[in-house]
Amino acid sequence: MKHTWKLLTLLILFSCEYSKFESEVTLPRLFGDGMVLQRQEAISVWGKGIPGENVRVSLAGAITSGTVEADSTWLLQLPELVAGGPFVLEVNRQKINDVYIGDVWVAGGQSNMEWRLKSQVIGAEKEFAEGGNQEIRFFKVPNSYSAEKLDDVVGGEWKIADSVNMKDFSAVAWFFAKRNNQEMKVPVGIIESNWGGTPVEGWTDAEILVEMEGSFLAQAKEVVENRDAWVSKLQVNEMNQHLRDSMVSNPDTLAARNVSSTDYDDSSWRKINLPDANPLQHIAWVRKKFNLKATDEVSLHIPTIDQMAYVYLNGKLLKYKDWGVSLPEIAIPSEMLLKGSNVLTIRAINTWNNQPRIGQKGEMYLLESGNKVSLEGTWAYSNSIVEPHLPKVEFFNWMPGMMYNAMIAPIAKYSIKGAIWYQGESNAGRHEEYKELFSTMITNWRRDWGLGDFPFLFVQLANFMERKDVQPDSNWAFLREAQAQTLELPNTGMATIIDIGEAEDIHPKNKKDVGERLWLQAKKVAFKEKNLASGPQFDSLSRQGNELLVKFKSIGEGLKLTEGEEVKGFIVGKDNGDFQQVSAMISDKSSVRIMIPEGMEVGEIRYAWADNPEVNLTNNLGLPTEPFRAKFE
C-alpha cells in the first residue's frame, strides 16, 4: 500500500509537470521536417503562443524551457550540439522529424545564385545520375517583399537533395554544399534567399540606408517616412502579380486547343517576320503553317524562346518551356502530324520585361527525315486577341529594404555557419557606391543574426559582354574592384571567376567551379584551414628602368599560364585615360615583368580591367589572378 501511494504521487507530479507544456505554440516555417540546425552554435528556437504559458524545447537530449511574453512571442536557446541526426525536435506537443545538425548557410544574391541546377548547368546530368545526398537539404525562401519587417517568410519547406528535388536547387549552392558535406562529414542545410535582377540595397535595412549618401537615398527615405502608404501600394501590386501569374501559368485549355488548331481563322492577326522582328508583348500568340510530305522522323528545333512558352502542334500541347532553360530538340510523335498542311502555335510570355522573344537566326526549323524545313519568315501573331493584356506589376522588390524585410529579417534568428553571396550585376552602373553599400549590408546582416562576424563569402563578377582589349572605363571592372575592397571587412572571402564567364550570357553555365571556389574560401575563412583559396593577388609594384615588376601573393607553387607564353590582360596608361596593351612575361614563380611604352614616365597599370578581359595567369591550382590596378612612376 505504501508503494502504491508513492507511485500515485509520482504519477500526479509527472502529470502536473507535463501539463505545464501543453499550450499551443506556433513556429516559423523554417522549423519543419527535414530541417538542418547549426552545429557547435547555440540554437535559437522561437515562435508565438499564449502570453504567460510555458514552452519547452528538446532536441538530441538537450532541453530548455521558458514562458511566452506579453506580446505573444517566445524565444529559447538550446546549447551547442555536435553534428548528427536524424533527431526529433519537440516543442510542447509538436514534433518535428528528420532533424539534422550540421552546417547551415544562407545563399543570397541575384539570378546567378538563384540559377537552378536543371537550367543547362555544365555537369548537372552527372549530379542527377548520382542521385543526390540525403544529408543535404535546401529551404527556398519564396520571392517576396514588404514595406514592414515580417515575422516569418511567406512560404517554403525543407527539401532533401534527392535526384528530383535537387534539380530546382541553386546550382552554386549545391556544389558548395556537396563539398561541405564531403570534406567536413556533416549534414548541410542551405537557406536560399535570392532573387534575380536585384540590387544590393533591396537586401539592406532601409532604416540604415537613410543615414547614408547615395543614389538610393531618396527611395530609402520614401519607404521609411511613408511606410503606411507603401503597405497599401504593395498590396495592390501584389494582387496584380497574383493575377498576372495566374494568367501566365493557367492557359485556357479549350481556347488554346481552338487557337492552335489547323482550322482556326487567324486572318485578323497581324504578321511578323521571325526571328528578325519581335514586337511581342503580354501573352503573345504566334502561328505558322507548314507542309510535310511524311509524318515519320520529324523533330522541332527552336532552342531560343525568352522566357516561358507553351508550344502547340495541330491543336495539341507539344511542350512547355520554363524560364532559364533552352527548348530541347523535340522529336514529334507521328500521330500529332498531318501529311500536307500543319500549324505550329506558340504561347510566349516574359514576366521580366513583358517582351517575349522567339527564335534566333538559323535556329528555327523542322527536320523531316534529316531535311530542314525552315520556320523563319512570316508568322501570324496576336498580343491581345486571344488573351487580355497582363496587369502591370512594378519591381518594388528592388527598392531599399523591401526584400530585406520579407526574406532576411524573418530568418535572422536562425543559427548559421555563414553566408554565400553572388550579386553585383544590377549595381554595376553605380559601382562608385557599391563598396559602402555592400559592406553596410554585410554589417547589417551580422548585427541582426547576433553571431558576431560570421563568415561572409562572395563571388566577384564573371567576365561578360563583348571582348575589348582596352577598356579602362568598364563599369564591370570598377564593380569588381569595389567587391575586392569589401574584403577589408573581417571574415570575408572572395571567389574570382574572371575566367569562366560567357560573352553572350550573363548567366555562365559553369556553376561547379563557382561553388567549389566559394568552398575553398569557406575552408580558409570559416574553418580556419591554411589552404590556398584564391588566385594570385597583387602584392607590390616596382620599376626597373623601362620595365615594371609586379609581385604576387597567393601563388601556391608558382604562377602558371593556361595558354601561350606571354601573360595576357595587362594594360598601362597615363592619368588622361589613354591606355594600351603591353607585353608581359612571367619573371619568376611570383612575379611578372612588363615593358613600359616609350616616353611613359608616370602612369597606371591594370590587369583584367574590362567587361570581358582575355586572361591566362593562374596559380598551380588553376585559380585565376584577381583584377587590380596600381600607380607607377
Describe the overall structure.
The chain is of the alpha+beta class and 633 residues long. The protein is 21% helix and 31% strand. Strands 2, 4, 5, 7, 8, 9, 10, 11, 24, 25 and 26 form an eleven-stranded mixed β-sheet that branches. α4 (171-184) crosses α12 (512-525). The radius of gyration is 29 Å and the shape is globular. The N and C termini lie far apart (101 Å). 41% of the residues are buried. This is Sialate O-acetylesterase. Residues 397-509 form the Sialate O-acetylesterase domain.
> Quick one: biggest sheet?
11 strands, mixed
Classify the helix fraction into a percent range. 10-25%
Mean of residue pLDDT values: 94
Calculate the terminal CA-CA distance, rounded to whole Å.
101 Å
Rg measurement, Å: 29 Å
Number of strands: 36
**Which class do the helix and strand fractions yield?**
alpha+beta
Can you count the helices? 12
Percentage of β-strand residues: 25-35%
**Molecular shape:** globular
Low-confidence stretches: 1-18
